[in-house]
Amino acid sequence: MPEKVIIIGSGPAGWTAAIYAARANLQPLVFAGRPKQTPSIILPGGQLMLTTEVENFPGFPEGISGPKMMSYFERQAVRFGTRIVTDEGLNPDVSNPDDGHSYKYQDCKSVDLSQRPFKVVGEDGKVFETHSLIVATGATANWLGLPNEMRLAQTGGGVSACAVCDGALPIFRNKELAVVGGGDSAVEEATYLTKFASKVYMIHRRDQLRASRIMQQRALSNPKIEMVWNSVVVDVLGDERISGLRLKDTVTGEERDLPVSGLFLAIGHTPATSFLKGQLELDEKGYVKLRDPGRSFTSVEGVFAAGDCADTIYRQAITAAGMGCRAAIDCERWLADQGIH
Ligand code: NAP
Questions:
Q1: Of 25, 271, 281, 338, which one has the greatest count of Cβ atoms within 10 A?
Q2: What fold, for 3-140+269-337?
Q3: Half-sphere exposure of 276 (CA within 13 A, CB side)
Q4: pLDDT per residue over 51-102, tens digit each?
Q5: What is the reported pTM?
């Protein structure tokens, strides 16, 4: 018997879709993804697994750690009958977030959306058939890939890829911070950080910003932002906390240390959609194209998308969760139209 719905992804979008689909009696099956470290760190639970403190998700007035929040999402989804594909079957015990159960979660290796029911293949080669699919695989922030950068990002040592998520934390208040990147996101992050920081260095590898003209003016006219042109970060300094950056001049090759108390990467995002190429319409950067902005329908009927894999603009936990809810409702109604309840 084909599944009614398979959900790929386990960030706020995936788990929210699972909660709604489970409560609609669709017994969703989730590919939550196996933890891995490419240059980026990818964990089940998505980017929030790298966020030490989430202070902007409504309902948590004192804030909550990203991993804890995602374990709550997961448990809520499982409570209503969501199943998760693991090395050992479909019903993991998720009651203890620290017992390493998520290391048994499988990736989805490939999908075949050319015929119905759709086919979804797990990492171990097992094929699942499904009437519908919700893609919620997210996008990973790009990282420089430096060992100390990754270590300090994972341990709350002052390295982050999201100023809106982390910038207001007390450790960054009245401190000198750095943003890497020269696009709109870098300007937006640097400008946002000036609310809290005493100064923000924008470190860019060229001598010209990629950002739109208006955003460039915003950065260049902000007295708290200092541009550091033609520079790349070659090391992140500090033991438990970041204390500075080792920079290399891209023109002269000279190296120097810049003391900072925080580093924010804004060098773009990569949607986790490569396994969908040729199956689903993606834009030139790999984001899933939605047929109608504000809905969750994709180019293939019966396939829905939610969260950062289909969102180049907001990329927040709360917006991803909202998109997951929309996808589950669109999916449930679509299945009902097909006579599948
Ligand atoms: P982006 O436009 O691709 O810019 C990425 C920046 O990071 C570029 O300046 C790039 O340098 C730099 N970079 C990439 N890899 C690097 C590396 N390994 N080391 C050092 N620097 C590196 O990405 P984005 O800023 O995230 O923007 C993505 C899209 O969202 C864009 O279309 C943007 O316009 C849009 N957006 C709009 C707004 C807004 O309008 N308010 C806000 C945010 C984003 P180079 O310039 O040398 O390539």
A1: 271
A2: FAD/NAD(P)-binding domain (3.50.50)
A3: 27
A4: 667 888 999 999 998 889 999 999 999 999 999 999 999 988 998 888 888 8
A5: 0.80
